[in-house]
Amino acid sequence: KVNVFHSMNFLLKFSDSIREAVKSGQVQLQGGIYHLETGKVEFLGKSPVQSELLSSTASIPPSMTSMVERESRGLHGVRTAADERVPSDAALKMLKAGNERFATGAVTAGTTSGEMRKALVKYNQAPHSAILGCADSRVPVDTVFDATPGELFVLRNAGNTCTHAEGSIVGSLEFCTGKLGSKLILVLGHTQCGAIAGATATHQAGATNAPGCALEGLLQGLAVVAKDASEQLGPGASQQELVAHAVKVNVFHSMDFLLKFSEPLRELVRKGELDIQGGIYHLETGRVEFLGQSPRQAELLSSDLSLPPSMALGAIRTSQDGIVAPKLALQTLKEGNERFVVGAPAAGKVHRSMCEALATKGQAPHTAIVGCADSRCPLETLFDALPGDLFVLRNAGNTCTHAEGSILGSLEFCTGALNTQLIFVLGHTNCGAIKGATAAYFAAKKQPTKANNALDVLLKGLDTVVAQAVAEAGDKATEEEVAGLAVKLNVFHTMNFLMQHSEPIREKVSRGKLEIHGGVYDLKSGRVEFLGCSPSQSKLVAGKSTVAPSLKDKMHGA
Known about the structure:
Layout: H1 2-14, H2 16-24, E1 31-34, E2 41-45, H3 50-53, H4 62-72, H5 88-103, H6 114-123, E3 129-134, H7 141-144, E4 152-157, H8 166-178, E5 184-190, H9 194-205, H10 214-233, H11 239-261, H12 263-270, E6 275-281, E7 288-292, H13 297-300, H14 309-312, H15 326-342, H16 352-361, E8 367-372, H17 379-382, E9 390-395, H18 404-416, E10 422-428, H19 432-446, H20 454-460, H21 463-473, H22 479-501, H23 503-510, E11 515-521, E12 528-532, H24 537-542, H25 549-557
Parallel strand pairs: 3-4, 3-5, 5-6, 8-9, 8-10, 10-11
Antiparallel strand pairs: 1-2, 6-7, 11-12
Helix pairs in contact: 9-10, 10-11, 19-22, 21-22, 22-23
């Protein structure tokens, strides 16, 4: 009985004409068993899997396909550089056909003969597709696409990602598409991916500590994918749904990374000489779900980045480099902080030649930072920056309350002579200066005291910020809660001060030649919360700047 159905299924699986006749109703395919004992036929009806098999695309039985396929794979039975380049649409059809053969158990790749291996050596490789897939042992890429040696250029890692060692991935694909002439890149994820499941668990656990091993760093690097998937699905999604969607989000994330950080790949896509597609391999069925191009492809083709972050940081910025736009400078800060958080810094060592370049060619920092002097907030470290990247001003409380002339003059120099277009004011949690100012404020309400030293004057200068925090937090707020809010308000206060008391800075902001952003560094997690521009910016830019208090007498005296 099983054999009868097996034969019926074979006819449906490997014959276009029979399938079409059944679909149109011209033919019925039935089974039966003749009983020798009674002379009667037991009619079994249609195959239980007929509906499924009517969607088959195989048109030739395996024994005949192998001969046809062997000839079509290349002049020498395998693809080599002696064969013509395969257009992207044809390459995609070859992947789909190969996966269909794998899924239906009609593989044709077979064995590789000595002659085929010699041809690969003599004529070199010319893969029709490059695949970025997962290292999972259940997803052997060449097997899944029923491919022979020479057909696929395969890159694999846990999570089919560019999160780490992205330079290796991007560089390899630039080689494959540029030197070998491949016109299709397929990023292939798969269901039940352990790396994505682990990253999702890491995201849900809110893990923010520095990774204790490389695996933890990898999972934290992929956590952004889980975060995006969670936001897209909403709070009602189950764990299983979240992981499944994160697999898809991760495929597009890797595709977007390639487009964002490789000008050679973008240029080929623009000219129609390369297609970047995504797919998900379903472990349960053996079939690949083809996702098409990234929804963000058109947007990313306008990117002007030419190196992945880890490789771009290998070069020192000097005055010979171009001006960095505020948006790009801010993104560089965000990406650098993310690398710091997940324990994957890329800045590396500073060599003598780099120091010599800075000395002889001058500086061109992409960002000026006003930060706190706290030893727990080393700015270059937490933004994974090299010498020449950041113009750094630090004092207790990241403030302009005192010595504002020094702060303003330094920033006017940086944004004027050095052409830096982003100022970033960075506060941090558990700030000793803010906590001290808050404590002094509450103590003074009970018993006013005189300032006896420079520290007392510094803390007194932060009264305005603390008073605002008290007003916003309410009467029931604790001293700790007030201090926490004051950290953020102090960032905005410093940003506002720059626009209030520096005409060159205010004027550049009004013309869009300079942006001022703020942030708060979380000591516990290592992450920077990016606050954006000051809520008062529009009002301040529309007004006029006034001379900083400490500079009035000096300027009048002059």
